[in-house]
Amino acid sequence: MIEPGLQIVTADAADRVDITVNMGPQHPSTHGVFRMLLHVDGERITAVEPFIGYLHRGSEKLCEVETYRQIIPLFDRLDYLSAFNNELCFVLAVEKLLGLRVPERAAYTRIILCELNRIASHFMFFGAFGIDAGAMTPFMFGFRERERIQQVFESVSGARMMHNYFRPGGLNLDVPDDFVDNVRSLLPVLKRGLEDAHNLLTGNEIFLARTKGIGVISAQDAIDWSLSGPMLRASGVALDVRRDEPYSLYERFDFSIPVGDEGDCYDRYLVRMAEIEQSIRIVEQAIADFPGGPFLGAVPKLIRPPAGECYVRTENPRGELGVYLVSTGERRPYRVKVRGPSFVNLSAIQQLLVGSYLADAVLILGSIDIVLGEVDR
Predict the structure, then answer these.
(1) What is d(CA 72, CA 86) in angstroms, rounded to the nearest whole number?
(2) How many angstroms separate the CA atoms of 41 and 217, rounded?
(3) pTM flag (> 0.85)
(4) What is the pLDDT of residues 129-156, one digit of tens each?
(5) Angle at 210 between CA 206 and CA 212, to 5 degrees
(6) C-beta of residue 360 within 8 angstroms of C-beta of residue 38
(7) What is the dotted CATH code of the domain comprising 59-375?
(8) Distance between CA atoms of 85 and 315, rounded to whole angstroms?
(9) Is the pLDDT reported for residue 2 higher than 50?
(10) Where are the domains of the chain?
(11) Measured distance CA(88)–CA(75) in Å, rounded
């Protein structure tokens, strides 16, 4: 007998129940202090409301009250997993305004450090993505290789992450005497680490089931969303700023642009793993031809670029990093605007998640490989 006041819910009515699930803003739920409201019907995501800004620091505005050299540490902290790559983009913009010539030794050092930073960032992705898929061991493997690279970084800049090492016109200090030997001995170790990573995760049948066909985005949609980096290349678009619009001395090096076929989570994983191999190739060539000479060009003590503006873009581990710089001839810039790859790539999160299972939400978000310091800059 049905008690008075109780409502009978039929199967058809239950199918139409919409539940709102909160994810984040904390690392155990999302990558960084990022929050999503997920609307689910059963186990399927029907709508997504992303919220950013929990880490907002006003970095671009802070640049307006700092001198050009003082701005470099701010770029370290935008994407703290690729600090060297961030520094490079900013100093290239300053050098473009000043018309500075960078000594070859400094240019080679920058490329070596940026490619090692790309490898370290991708190993970090490997470890975090493994945890997203439910495996703890990849995190240990990824951090092991990353730690080896950070020891080289520390020997060069004195810091493991926030380096403040590149300068307009070159470097803050010359590399230590054992730099070439240390990097040369590191490369075969990283190759073995990459092989270990592949053996651990790439062919794992559980990992394949969790990632193949999940979070698919087509090449045209990726272009329409302005995606870049591994997110774009995983969808089959072979666009890499290092090759298509070479900066520094990248045109001297031989390397391939890995691309995917399906544009799913697995392809985004594979592209980053292949990029580790290509970065090792670049470092091998740079170390083999590492030049002598000065590490800093003819730079005025007080940097005052002439009035003007410029835009410089580089290939960050997460995609295209751009810096729009405006000078009025003073010792501080009038405006610094950053085009961040994490921020732009994250804009496609709704298309990636809607229609997917709730259990796949963390994997899809992890496959974007965002850093909230740059998203919330």
Answers:
(1) 9
(2) 22
(3) yes
(4) 999 999 999 999 999 999 999 999 999 9
(5) 110
(6) no
(7) 1.10.645.10
(8) 8
(9) no
(10) 59-375
(11) 9
